[in-house]
Amino acid sequence: MKSIVIRQPNELVIEERVLPEPAAGEVRVKVQLAGICGSDSHIYRGHNPFAKYPRVIGHEFFGTIDAVGAGVTNKTVGQRVCVDPVISCGRCYPCSVGKPNVCTSLVVIGVHRDGGFSEYAVVPAKNAWQVPDGRVGQACGNGGTLHDRRQRDRAGDAEPSRTWR
């Protein structure tokens, strides 16, 4: 598969990479749309102290699930999804008070692990939010907005919907 890789600050290449397989609890997304953001520019220029290189950037992306890892029961091949880039532990103090974006074990897709500037991306199944067929992918191109929406869902008493509206 082709990926846009930042090998080190100010060095961007298109690289052929091995198609990743989803591990337990993960899904593989065939990327159809990826947005570019100022955060991506900071990583490219070496201005993000948390970025690890080489890195496939892109934390705002949409696509279709084409493979599921072991133990994933609520996602299916063919589902259209937006990806929430914030991977948090769910157990630390910040997570317990609804602030997973400052989790003590924070991992951000496209910063700490490879993101959506690739033909395929592997992400935790819990971070892949179903997009109804009537919605266009551009509606979920902003990962930050998606993450904020997810946090508002979780702040209520009801179990959050796993479908992005």
From TrEMBL:
GO terms for molecular function: L-threonine 3-dehydrogenase activity; zinc ion binding. Its EC number is 1.1.1.103. This is L-threonine 3-dehydrogenase. The lineage of its organism: Bacteria, Pseudomonadati, Pseudomonadota, Gammaproteobacteria, Enterobacterales. Keywords: Metal-binding, Oxidoreductase, Zinc. Residues 140-165 are annotated as: Disordered. The gene is tdh_1. Residues 146-165 have a biased composition (Basic and acidic residues). Transmembrane segments: none annotated. InterPro entries: ADH-like_N (IPR013154), ADH_Zn_CS (IPR002328), GroES-like_sf (IPR011032), Zn_alcohol_dh (IPR050129). Residues 24-133 form the Alcohol dehydrogenase-like N-terminal domain. PROSITE patterns: ADH_ZINC. It comes from Raoultella terrigena (Klebsiella terrigena).
